[in-house]
Amino acid sequence: MTRYLRPDSPEYEAVRRPAMPQYGEVRPAVIAQCETPADVAEVLAEARKEGLPVVPRSGGHCFAGRSSTTGVVLDVSPMSSVEVSDDVAVVGAGTRLSRLYDALDAVGVTIPAGCGPTVGIAGLTLGGGIGVLGRSHGLTCDSLLAAEVVLADGRIVTCSAEQDSDLFWALRGAGGGQFGVVTRLWFSTLPTPVATRFHLTWSRADAVGVIDSWQHWAPYAWDELSASLRVTATEIHLFGLTTGEFSAPMEVSPTFAVVEQLPYRRLKESLVGLGDDPDAGESMAVSKSEFFAGPLPVAVIEELLRDAPGDVNFTPMGGAYNRVPATATAFAHRDTAFLLELVGTDRAKLAQVFSPLEPYGTGRVYTNFPDPTLDDALTAYHGENLGRLREVKRAYDPEGFFTFPQSL
Ligand SMILES: Cc1cc2nc3c(=O)[nH]c(=O)nc-3n(C[C@H](O)[C@H](O)[C@H](O)COP(=O)(O)OP(=O)(O)OC[C@H]3O[C@@H](n4cnc5c(N)ncnc54)[C@H](O)[C@@H]3O)c2cc1C
């Protein structure tokens, strides 16, 4: 049954706010908390009758506020469930990552996915899903076997490689909220790995050398190594996991180093928020990011470090991410070495600091890190898959019921 929360409902204030505080003032006309696909179909029909826009919300972490609206927030969080059998996990679209990992860990399996414990599995998967097992096992969406979707006209379809295969292709990487409301996801699971966690830090004064060593090493290392780099105002953090022996080819010795084998679930939890400033309040941060296909010149790194207004995050790609052809799923970024993300509070400042990097970037942007300032956003997000995505959109949402700035 759907639970409707309106501005006069006691829970409305708390529930309407997404995880990103900068969208906390958007006031939906109604929040519809749906328990079943039939509930979703009913809400879509009602909204259509009333002429109200609908946005689905899973974990509410969209960087561009796309799961907030003054119309109807269709909240799938009541559909939070995980069932595992025969190497397949059936996951309700409202499940948050921490609950998912706990449920999978209890039966000795996992899936490759991100770190944020309250991130929603639906939003993460529909945009791709980068995580510490990604270089060895691919994106979260590469493990997707099927998805149940309620379309704009109320039809409920279960798409897979065999059934509604175009829709299934598009759901793997085009980004959430484009084709319908996903209510259930089927994933192939992996046995929980035995893994070693590492966390090394250096003083920020060593940043140029550390970044330069990292960019020639981490994206090209053996697949079972995932080493991310975070440069804060005072330190550099190198962290991640490996299922083999750990060694890092940095020329400068770290000021701190922990290398330890941990049960996988604890390991994953230990990577959350590494390098966060414990005194920072609620973050109104915005970010700008791009995929890079090869190393940056040292002079460009120096300029970046001089001007960066906040953290600089480097995420290694390569490995299994790149073994899937760019057109095999809607996720088009299969030839990249790393993702670079600049964090700040002022979008204009970020654009200015980012511009010297652009000649070295691929011009491609991760759909799960949406950037409202992009000039040609659809090419940046979808690359060569854009034409086919437009066809799928026409076939499954011909009236453009699901729409937002930068949507298909
Ligand atoms: C703290 C934090 C940590 C992160 N860590 C990672 C990481 O490790 N790896 C990574 O790849 N990304 C990461 N991200 C980015 C994350 O993948 C995106 O923000 C993602 O879109 C969030 O999904 P959500 O369901 O939480 O957000 P939402 O805001 O609920 O949804 C995101 C988009 O998907 C749509 N959507 C939501 N539910 C559905 C549904 N059921 N059906 C159809 N469309 C839907 C929404 O309308 C919106 O457009 C992180 C983000 C944050 C804020």
Automatic annotation (TrEMBL):
<keyword id="KW-0560">Oxidoreductase</keyword>
<dbReference type="InterPro" id="IPR006094">
    <property type="entry name" value="Oxid_FAD_bind_N"/>
</dbReference>
<dbReference type="InterPro" id="IPR006093">
    <property type="entry name" value="Oxy_OxRdtase_FAD_BS"/>
</dbReference>
<dbReference type="InterPro" id="IPR036318">
    <property type="entry name" value="FAD-bd_PCMH-like_sf"/>
</dbReference>
<dbReference type="Pfam" id="PF08031">
    <property type="entry name" value="BBE"/>
</dbReference>
<keyword id="KW-0285">Flavoprotein</keyword>
<dbReference type="GO" id="GO:0016491">
    <property type="term" value="F:oxidoreductase activity"/>
</dbReference>
<feature type="domain" description="FAD-binding PCMH-type">
    <location>
        <begin position="23"/>
        <end position="192"/>
    </location>
</feature>
<dbReference type="InterPro" id="IPR016166">
    <property type="entry name" value="FAD-bd_PCMH"/>
</dbReference>
<comment type="similarity">
    <text>Belongs to the oxygen-dependent FAD-linked oxidoreductase family.</text>
</comment>
<dbReference type="InterPro" id="IPR012951">
    <property type="entry name" value="BBE"/>
</dbReference>
<dbReference type="InterPro" id="IPR050416">
    <property type="entry name" value="FAD-linked_Oxidoreductase"/>
</dbReference>
<protein>
    <submittedName>
        <fullName>FAD/FMN-containing dehydrogenase</fullName>
    </submittedName>
</protein>
<dbReference type="Pfam" id="PF01565">
    <property type="entry name" value="FAD_binding_4"/>
</dbReference>
<dbReference type="GO" id="GO:0071949">
    <property type="term" value="F:FAD binding"/>
</dbReference>
<keyword id="KW-0274">FAD</keyword>
<dbReference type="InterPro" id="IPR016169">
    <property type="entry name" value="FAD-bd_PCMH_sub2"/>
</dbReference>
